[in-house]
Amino acid sequence: MNEPAASRPSGVGGAPPLMSIGEVLAQLRADFPDVTISKLRFLEAEGLVEPQRTAAGYRKYGWDDVARLRFVLTAQRDQYLPLRVIREQLARWDADGEVPEGSRPALVAVGPDGEVPGRGAAASVESAQVRLDRAELVARSGLDESTLGELERLGLVVSDPPGWYDGDALIIARAVAGLAAYGFQPRHLRGYRTAADREVGLFAQLVAPLVRQSDPAARARAAETARELVALSEQLHAALVRVGLRSTLGR
After folding, report:
1. Which CATH architecture has domain 21-96?
2. Residues of the chain below pLDDT 50
3. In 3D, which of 9, 39, 27 has the Cα closest to residue 67?
4. Are 48 and 83 a contacting pair, CB within 8 Å?
5. Over the stretch 91-120, which tens digit does the pLDDT of each residue have?
6. How high is the mean pLDDT of the chain?
7. Selection from 155, 164, 158 nearest residue 136 by Cα
8. What was the pLDDT predicted at 229?
9. What is the pLDDT of residue 238?
């Protein structure tokens, strides 16, 4: 049951007013349109924020809580950080008596164009909600029709629903177009599809039990677990490739 979103109180004895979970959601929605009450409850369950409770059990958030939530959501959206890393940063602030208000997460190195290692710049702006037709995908990715057809035949790009492509399809197509500039052909990329399928099988075993639960918090935890597994996998793959190239580069 959603908690009632009461109008903001004026505060007692000069104390800052407290907000219901619905009011906090309204505060965050402008910058984080995908945030939900289930997500806020999940972040609380993970120990990233600890709202007060009324005698009736309703959550009450202060502005420090909102600042923490903004930091967590920004770190996930812009830096693609796992909750473990975010939790460690917040723990350091708690130990120092600080509040992350006005702070932006800067816990990982970024490239000259602002991209995060292991995560293309397109990943931060494209989402599963993007819908492109075939002509748009070709125009925005730089691929030609024949190459796109070959990628579909190999299972590297999939239209879903038929005839429409999401943001991940665009990311894949752009990456392939970039590799093609170095002489890569679609047939050289079969191994990527095979390796990805293996990882999907492993990760699905971990998140499927959570997805099957009816508890919204469990489903939110499943989505978060999948996101962190993908991020860790990207870091591992990039590091292994760098290590493998050292002898070739003479380093």
Report:
1. Orthogonal Bundle (1.10)
2. 1-10, 12, 102-126
3. 27
4. yes
5. 888 887 766 654 444 444 333 333 344 444
6. 80
7. 164
8. 86
9. 86
Do 109-184 and 21-96 fall under one CATH topology?
yes
Q: Rounded to whole angstroms, what are the CA distances from 135 to 128, 140, 142, 162, 174?
A: 18, 9, 11, 14, 14
Token pair of 150 as six digits: 């070959």
Domain boundaries, the chain: 21-96, 109-184, 190-251
Its pTM stands at 0.55
Chosen CATH of 109-184 out of 1.10.357, 1.10.1660, 1.10.12, 3.40.50:
1.10.1660
